[in-house]
Design a protein that fits this description.
The structure holds 2 protein chains of 2 kinds.
Chain A (H helix, E strand, L loop, with lengths): L10 H8 L12 E7 L4 E9 L5 E9 L2 H14 L4 H15 L22 H18 L4 E3 L2
Parallel strand pairs in A: 1-4
Antiparallel strand pairs in A: 1-2, 2-3
Helix pairs in contact in A: 1-2, 2-4, 3-4
Chain B lengths: L10 E4 L6 H9 L6 E3 L4 H7 L4 E5 L6 H17 L2
Antiparallel strand pairs in B: 1-3, 2-3
Classes of the chains: A alpha+beta, B alpha+beta.
Chain lengths: ~150, ~80
Amino acid sequence: MTIHSEDLYQQVILEHNKRPRNFIKLDPCTHEAEGYNPLCGDHLKVYLRVNAQGVIDEISFTGDGCAISKASGSMMTAALKGKTVDEAKVLFEEFRKLVTKESDAGEHLGKLMVFSGIWKYPSRVKCAILAWHTMKGALDRKATVSSE
Amino acid sequence: MIGTAKDKAPIFSFILKDIHAHDIGTLIDREGVAIRTGHHCTQPVMKHFGVPATARASLAFYNTKEELDILVVALKKIIGVFK
């Protein structure tokens, strides 16, 4: 008998959880925010270094959380490095729609489509989107973000 | 096991290696076992034990030995998934 969780705990998610990319404090940075989900205790910080042309030169995150929130943060930083702030906001919106099943188009999401099955686990959607809300909060100059 | 009072009630709060309690909860649910996960509205206690969250099996008189075996097998499988 196997654990029936292939749709959620896919290999790529387990791998990003084990070895999260860009899992370090970025110093100096131009934008940062703290994201917290008081209900489950997931807690992370996202740091960005945006240049004068509005391109995200560097992005990183730190924090504690479950495999889903950590893998999501890791894959988000990998996806956004080198993108413009406007592109990052488009990706945020596509990702938000994907995980809430508002839309499964995800035109620009690429590897992030691995989260497409998460809407079946309503209690875990917030884990997947916490890093994204925190990133958006940093760009919008909000110091703290809650995904409660 | 978190909390080892001498005459404790059959409510077992535990952690499993470095696997987060929410991952345990979701995976174990798929095996037919319902447990509670998170900080159980007791953040000061979590802080005291130095853990972000725990998984918690809450047993009662109607739970059977077979059900406990299912729980143990499921926990072992989860360790395998996160290996």
